[in-house]
Amino acid sequence: MTATLQLRRALKDTLAGSVFIGFGLFFAIVSTTYEVGSPLNMGPGYFPLVLGGVLVLLGAAIVVKGFVAGDGEPIGPIPWRSAALIVAAIVFFGVTVRGLGLVPSLFIATLLTAFAGHRIGAISATVIAGGLMILCVLIFVVALQLRVSLIGPWIPV
């Protein structure tokens, strides 16, 4: 089997693994600008460095799996609508979390990402958004005591 044919077979896994490796290297390199510390005395750069290393290892494993697994499926069309909705949700949350507050920003962002799926209806998307919003409030505000307003100054109460 030629190297070109093998690369063509592993294209999906090679691309996915490369993305993981790229993000992992980025996190690892940026984390060195902070104090890393040691496992017993962790600095602010410790977790991003470990996470970056794990992402690089995971990406390398995905690339190797692509070459070992053999035949792969063609990449196919890119779901632009889904990609746009997910990017819009992330940008919306980042721009509005301080003004609208955690609850409305998170609900709308989650609702947008739920609609990125092709087979999801309005009721299912609303239930998913509500459930994830409640879960995030319980985890971040109640359990971790993150200081973020639930309802922001843009919404008159």
Give the SSE layout:
Elements lengths: L2 H7 L1 H21 L14 H24 L10 H21 L1 H13 L7 H22 L14
Helix pairs in contact: 2-3, 4-5, 5-6
Could you describe the 3D structure shown?
By secondary structure, the protein is an all-alpha fold. It has two domains: 3-69; 80-143, no CATH class. Helices cover 69% and strands 0% of the residues. The protein is built from six helices and no strands. Helix 2 runs antiparallel to helix 3 (46-69), helix 4 (80-100) runs antiparallel to helix 5 (102-114) and helix 5 (102-114) runs antiparallel to helix 6. It is flat and about 55 Å long. The mean pLDDT is 88.
Tally the beta strands: 0
Structural class: mainly alpha
Sum up the overall morphology in one term: flat
* Overall structural domain count: 2
**What is the overall number of helices?**
6
Low-confidence stretches: none
Task: Provide the succession of SSEs.
Answer: HHHHHH
